Each structure stands twice: as structure tokens, then as C-alpha cells.
Amino acid sequence: MKHSNRISGNLASNQSRVDENKQISFEFNKKSYKGLAGDTIASALLANSVDIVGRSFKYGRPRGIVTAGADEPNGILQLGANEASQIPNIRATQQQIYPGLVCSSTNGWPNAETDVMGVVGKLLGHVMPPGFYYKTFMAPSKLWMTYEKMIRKGAGLGRTSLENDPDKYENINQFADILVVGAGPAGITAALNAARSGARVILCDEQNEFGGNLLSEKVMIDGEPAQAWIDSSITELSETDNVLLLKNSTVNGYHDHNFLTIHERCTDHLSDNAPAGSVRQRMHRVRAKQVILAAGAHERPLVYANNDVPGCMLASSVTTYINRYNVVPGRSLVLMTTNDNAYQTAFAWQKAGRHVAAIVDTRSSAGEIVTQQATELGLNVIYSSVVTETKGGKRVKAALVATIDADGTQVTSDASEIGCDTIASSGGWSPAVHLSCHTGGKPNWRDDIQGFVPDDFNKDMFVTGAGNGIYALADILKDAAKIGTAAVKACGLTAKRASSAKTDEVEVAPSMPLYLAPHSKPSTRAPKQFVDFQLDVTAGSIEIAVNEGFESIEHVKRYTALGFGTDQGKSSNINGIAIAAKKMGKTIPETGTTIFRPNYTPVTFGAIAGRNVEEFFDIERYSAMHSWHVEHGALFEDVGQWKRPWYFPKAGESMQDTLNRECLATRESVGILDASTLGKIDIQGPDAREFLNRVYTNAWLKLPVGRCRYGLMCREDGMVFDDGVTSCISDNHFIMTTTSGGAAGVFNWLEEWHQTEWPELEVYFNSVTDQWATMSLSGPNARKLLAEITDIDLNPETFKFMDLREGEVAGVPARVFRISFTGEQSYEINVQANYGLAVWEKLFEHGEKYNLTPYGTETMHVLRAEKGFIIVGQETDGSMMPDDLDMGWAVSRNKEFNFLGQRSMSRTDSVREDRKQLVGLRTKDPKAVAPEGSQIVFDPEQEIPMTMVGHVTSSYYSACLGHSIAMAVVKGGLKKMGETVFMPQADGTNIEAEICSPVFYDPKGDRQNV
Amino acid sequence: MNLHPKNADMQAHHSMYHVSRKHEAGNEHYALTEKAVGHLIIRIPEKNLKTAAKAIKSVTKLAIPKTLEATSNKDFSLFWLSPDELLLITPEKTEADIEDKLRDKMEGHFAIVDVTGGQTLLELSGERAETILKKSTIYDVHESNFPIGKVVTTKFAQSQIIMTRVSADGFQLIVRRSFSDYIWQWMVDAGSRV
Description:
heterodimer; A: alpha+beta; seven-stranded mixed sheet; six-stranded mixed sheet; B: alpha+beta; five-stranded antiparallel sheet; 4 helices; 23% helix; globular
């Protein structure tokens, strides 16, 4: 394809950064184009004379590239060659092209070139006045869904991928003395001064090369083209210790305490997906002692009628395309400017061999230097005038130019037409204050530069360069050097003398404060004068908002959607504020700005999530026997972060088959459970007993050495929050067990009470959960099996239920507890975790003849429910007191020191008779297993809403008993034994059940005591 | 209580035995290995610190480390963990003996807890080691802030870790057993790229 807008040979820029010898093919809107290495999508499209890159959000008007940077409102593309690599919100002006790049317009359906949406857009425009969303939300609200679909279809705001992203993203933590944001002349100079003083420095820039605006402007530094200075400075920095240089890296967020996030696009300029072994994007999480903002400024477009026709561009971006990319985006230029600086655009255009139709200067005269240059080049300069309106549809055809009065509020002549295909405009520059506002800073207006600059809200932040309203290069270099050394001192380091490169001082004439070029008709009647291109907000709609009574700029913003787009109104904010201010008769500082929030430019979710995805989404904690469980086909259940065996299915078994087999094997012979995940807290100290006495509801002072006791723990409100067995190893040494999920919470609870309330108690807590591998043998043959491999005397007369013994199991030193969660003869074997697997395997070697059966949490649940043992968090929900659980036996009310929760237990509400109380349920149909969570009613015939009196907390089929069993909480249930309740189901059926004791199996407890 | 079997044939499986080994650790840029040692947590209230220091000195020849520091010699390392908490790393299988000796010599209120099975010591070294840590922890591991001999307990990926620098590009990390698989795999992943 012909590069019709690409210049070469004598006309080419001597500072271009594209490589003429490296052609790159890419696809835009299903058409193939060729660009050059170094091109952005925008420069390559302009080189190929592509005028339209999308359709506008509301009106469906054709739109073209306006800027050459992060402020681009129109060139917002969908990127990705395959479904998995789709990314929305890519700015054509910032994305480098690479071989095989595929992109398309996000706004425009069925495509950007044809006018279908234009017609619909005109229609939509009429039904979407300013405040459309608010008016629509108000009434009729049901219509909103209809509008919304229509708007989305029309606007096409881009989409995410429907497939998993195959790329890897990373987070990395960085620390710096000084973070320099932006590597233009200011940032580089500041970084050089900081680095030379030995500070740890990070210098980052969103562009693919360092140099900032120097890449676009023709300037000399130290007597050479600026690129030479950029190269030598970057080389020096890269060779200095403790300097990190990041390009393609945007500082997106400035958070509290000088924590900033940098979004680095590592491979986005290379290929659709990251090359093997590399990360696509990296989020640098930076903590900097000092931040230097050298973020530059955004040029403001002037607002005039039909200023959105493709071919209307920012003056500086036209310069950038010519000087940096060798692309002249048109044939014939009209430049409208309020300042001297923009004259460079016309000069560059002319030197590139294209026609400059006119320079329209809003002022009555320009500075000497540019005036002289314009004269030398033979350019036609029209003073005291504006472009009032553009002619043309899909491309500018002409500019209407009229004279204006001195303060730029009215046209003073009829408009004359000047033929052209490009209108470049410059209304001056707005410092990029965005980052300084993220933590709450409110920028200050400066009349002398007609812009907002950062305030001093962030205490450890400096600002320099154009970002602080300093525009003359000579001044920028001097100021940045000073700021660099000041930041070094602020870090408490010794700063070397500030030094900066030299450049010529340039005299400029003052610029004119003008935002909206007047038109012969008022804004509400004139052709649309766009302020925010991305959201189609016009000067007229801002004026309507003010007319309708919106006085706060924040309200105007929300009413009109000004600055709501993905560009956050970078090019539109100041113009919008100025127009609103003028309409309200206020000054700009009186009107104030809207708030800028992170992120500066859109960030992918991938970069935010980093590697915390897939296998690293959450921690998986494994017990010492985990590999055995995997090898033996266990299915796993998540308990907190633990992976616990859920059940061990054999080939062909249903889940219920497995549970039946595991339960029966345990009740008839012997089963084994990996109980390692139970929280274990080692408690040492002379006051350990007293401490236990205060945190548990029952008595601990007399627990003998070698004995274990079950305890309930309550919060101050008297509600049960954990339970477990604590054993006395010696008089001042105990081992507490907690629920698997509650371990960390209990540990914190103990520490909190010890540290804040009872520091006088001499006691230490240490988590030993991971130290011990715990295996629980249960069943009538448990003793026989254990006896084969232990030297501990298992005689039940001396090693009784709730006793603890130390000895060897399978040759490994062990603590063995006779405690049971199944109601069977049980031995809980604890060995140092490194030997857990070996002992476990030894048990199976000896266990074969007893049909030793491993079981998981599900069978454990059934076995304990058969015995009516509660699980905290299943039978309790933070509102159950010990008496509600019929566990008053575990509460000792006569302790000298009130235990935690004791006082709450005598509140009126705590002793109500109709509190929900834990009971058992026996279904009338023995095979019916009521779903857990089923609501319970007394009267099944009652009209809806029925009176709900409780719910099912646990419900299983018991193979040992041959019928279903359930535990439930029922209002006043303990006094309703034998009564009938009903559980209405979603399908309209009712499960009928009788209230009974929750202890279904071996109510006297003979089996666990044998 | 000695928790090691007399019969040395009884296989000990340290934490890393259970690493699901989706990735092999180490490449030309870094090395990651597990070290079999004994781990004792020692808790001492301030008022008993003097006598405890004496006892520790006589058993291990080590002084009590200053805040956020470690002391070490050929056999032992002593890490400061919190104002009343130390971690003593002992040669493999000697921790019970050391505990007994310390208990003999220490006076008043204190606690010693054997956590040899509950945590493990990893050694991370190589030119990429510091980068791996930067991808994992929010602590500033630059040598100016984290010099040799400094010890910190900090967040590590979504878990936590005790770490110390032992050389310019060498670190020791103490990891809880049940989290070790996650941490190991995280580091191997982080180490697979620049």
C-alpha cells in the first residue's frame, strides 16, 4: 500500500524515530496496512491516509486521530489477533505496531466507515439530551434496560476476552529514594542530579523511548540535536548503580504514603501474546521516599463548531507526527493558535513540502521570532481571528474563519472559507496534574500560564517542568536540576551541586486565554462544538447543564458525562470548566476542577492480579500425609486453606456408597482420619491453667497431668466460637486443639487477651499445628492394631478414655491421646510431622488384616453426627450459647474468675425459653435426608409467609443406623422432644420429622470407653 | 522430648517432600534448597533475659541478637523474631538435646517449643535471588535496607516468612510446613523469569 502521507528523502525529518527499512504489516478493521518499525497504530494509520478510526459514542459521528499520546479521545481500539488476547481501551496513539497486530474500532457498528450508525446516531442524539442517564434512571425505570442495550450496541465500549488469558502478568515491589515520573527533559535532568548524588532512583516513562516532548520538537541541547543529549543521559543513568529505568511504563496511581503503581507493558509492543518465558505486563508497586513529578503537559484543543470532523487535530500532535514519525497527516493545513509555540506546527508542515493555507492567530500579534520565521517561509498569518466552524463530513474540507473581539467572546465579521483538509489547533497547555490529585490534592490555577498546577498536598512530592507550568526548555532544565538536588536533600542524603544542560533561551509573546472559539450563533444553536470527544459532550450541553441549575463542576460533570470516558477528559477538562465558568459568570479557580482518580490510563486486570491467579490464586496447605491421600484417590475438601481428604472413593462407588463403606468399616473394625489440620497451640507457663480457666467455659484448675478435657470457648457475648480438647502435659505445659479453620482466630484471641487484659499472667502461646502430624484411629479394633506397633501400655484400665501417653509408635516418639470424635474406641497419634507419612504407612502395613480404612471429612461428619457431637460453624453460627447447644455441662459457673462470656449468659435474652436450641431430628420416612439449611415449621398448612422456627444444621444418611439422621436448631426445641416438625421444600413437598435427642448412636458412650 | 526415632531407617520426609513438583527449582540464575536442621522457638520475658542470655551463651556460644538481627556460628543461628521471641536453629536432630540443656540452665518463666517438624529452612541464592524476593515480599530487600545478618518476619506472596540475608546474594527463609509447597512453587515461578 502506498504511504501517501509518509515523507522521505529531502523532506524527511532528521530526528524521525521510525525505521524506513523495517516494514511491519498489521490489520485495522479487517484491512491490512503497512507501517514502519517505531510507528504507533495512529502514526501508521495516518501514514496510510486512514481518516476515520471510530464513531462517536452518542451521535455516531466519524472520528479521527486527534492527539499523539495518552490524551487521545477518539483512537480507542480493541486489540487482539485471537479471542484470548483481546484487550479493550487501547489508545492507537500509544500502542506500537508489531507484525500481525490486529485491531479494530470500538465505537462503530457495523463498521466505522459506513454511515449506518451515523443515521442511528442522529436519532439517538435526539433522545439523549444532556442528563440523559439521570433522567432515564428517574422514570420509567423499567425502560432503562432497553435503553442500556441500545446504547451499548451503538456505543460499543470494547469488550474483554471470553477465553482465559494465556499470558503471564507479574507484580514486583520496588523501593526508591526518588521516583521520577516522566522522562522528558525535566525528568531526565532531575534523575541525573539525583543519581549523581548516589540516591536510589527510578525513572519511568509511558512512551517507548525516553525523551518526552524532545522526541517531537526540534531543539538543540548543549549545541547538538536533543537526541544526542537524551542518549548520553540515559547511558549515564543506566550505568549508575541503583538506578532503574522503565520505559513503556505508566505511573497510573499515586496512593497514600508515596506508594505508586507503575504499569509496565513489557511485551505489548512485540507481539499479540508475550514470547515464551516472558511476562506481558508488570505492575511495579513502588514505595518512594520522594516523588518528582515531571509528567509534562497536555495541549488543549480549541473548541469550535464541527471540530470533531477527521482532520481536526492538536497542533503539537501534528508536529509530533511529522518530526517523529515522518508522517504529514494531510495536504493543506489551517493552524489556529492562541500562542507562539504552535507556530512550529506550520513550520514543520511547510518544511515537509505540504501547503499551509493559513495560520489563524487569535491574538492581534505574535512574538517576534515566530513572526519573522513565518514571514521568511511566506506563510499567511491572519490575526485576531478564529476558525469558527469546519466544513466537511468524513474529512475536513474547509475552515470558516472570522475575526473576533479582543477578549474572544464574539465574532466581529462574517466568516470566510479557507480550503484545507487539516485544522490544527492549540489553546495552550494544561500541566498533567492528575497524579498529584490522586491522594486528595487540589490543583491551583495560575493565570499567568492559564493552567492548573499541582498543590503542595503531597508532602514528599516535587513538581518540575511543563507539569509545573514551566514551558521554556532553558527554564525546565535549570528548574529540574534544582528539584533533583532538593529531592536528594529531602531524602536525608548529601546532594551534589545541581547541574543541567544548556539550551538557547527563546523569547515568546504571551498567549491568549481562549477555550471556545466564538461562533455567529450561540453554542446551543451553532453546529456542535465538541468539548469531550469521547463522550460527545458539547459546549452547548454544558451551557444547558448550567441553565438547568447545576452550579458545581462535579454536578456538571455527572450531568453531561464530561470527562467520564476512558481518557478521563484529559483533553476536555479545562475547556469544559472554562465554558461552565463563563456561563456561570465565575472565574476558573472559583469553579474548580473535578477530581482525578487512579488510574491515569486504563490498566489490565492481569497486571493488577499479577501471579495471584490459577495455582497461586489461594494458598493450598497440605498435611504431611498429603501425597499418600493423593496416591490413594482421595477427593479433597477446602477447610480454610487446608486441602483435607473429603472421602476415598473406590472404583465404581457413588459418594454415598463410599461414605457407607467408610462408616461401617470404622464402626465394625477400624478407620483412620488425617487430623493434622486441627489447630494445635502449645501453652507454657506457671499461669497456663489460670489462663485456660478464663478463656474456656469449664474448669481447668484441677485437670491432672496426663489427662485431656473438652472445652468450649465463647466470646464476650457468650456465643460459642470454638471448641476443642486441651491436654495437660505437665503442670505448666498444655496442648490446646482448635477447629481446623479456627486455629489462627483462636491464637489471636488468646494473644489479644494475654497482651491487652492479663499481661500479668505468665504464659506463652506458640502455634504447633504444623509441628505434629495427627492420625486418629477409631473403631473396635483400634487398640489391637495400635498394640502391634507401640510400646505404650494400652491396658484400658490404666490408659483410659481422655488420657494422654507418650511412647513410641512404629518406632517414632509419639504423643497418643485417647480422645474420640466418632464415639468409638479411639487413639489420636501425634508424631513430629517429618515422620507422619512413615508412621501412617506403617499403620497400613499392620492394618490390612483389620481392614483399616482411611476416611475423610465427610465420613467424619456422619460419624460425629451419629453421636450428636457439634461442629462449631455448622451447628453454631455465632448466635449459639452453650445452653442452646444443651452443653451446659461444659460450663462451670462457680469459677473464682469470671470466664469470657459468663456475664452475657445471664442476660434476659440469653435465658429466653424460646431460643433456638440444638436437637436431633428423625424423619418419618427413614430414607429421607432433609437438605441442610431446610427451614423448620410447626404448622405445614400455614399460609406463606410461614412462621419459621429453626433450620437443619447437619443432615446425613447413617449406614450404621439404617436411617437418616439430622441435627437442627428449633425454637424451644429442648422442651419439645417427641413433637413433630415439618421442613417445606422448594418443590412443594414437606419432610416430616420428630424432635429427638441428637445422640443417635450409643447414647451411654460405652463404645468409646471400652 | 526427642521426637526422632532411634532407628535411622525410619524415613523422615521434610516439608519439601510434598512439593507437588510442577516445576523444578533452580536454573543458572538461582538455587533453592531445603536444609535439614533443628528449630526451637524460645520465649523469654524481659525480666528473665539476662539469665536466659547466659544460658543460651553457654549452650550455643551465641549472644542474644539485637532487634531484627541474627547471630550465628558454625553450628547455630539465633534469630530475633519479636521482643520476647527467638528462633534457635540447631544441627539436625540435636534440638531435643539442646532444649534439655537450655531448660536445665534457664530460670523463671520461659518457654521452649520444638518446631522442627512445623517449619523448614530454605536457602535461596544466585544473581536472581533478590529479584525473586522483590516479586514476593513487600519488604525492601535492597542490601542498604536488608544487610547481612538482618532478620525480618514479613508477608510473602499471600503467606508469610522469616528471612535473613547471609551473603550478597544469599538468603535463608524460614517457612511453615503447610505453606511450604505454595511458597516453593511461587518462588520457582518467580525465578523462571527475569
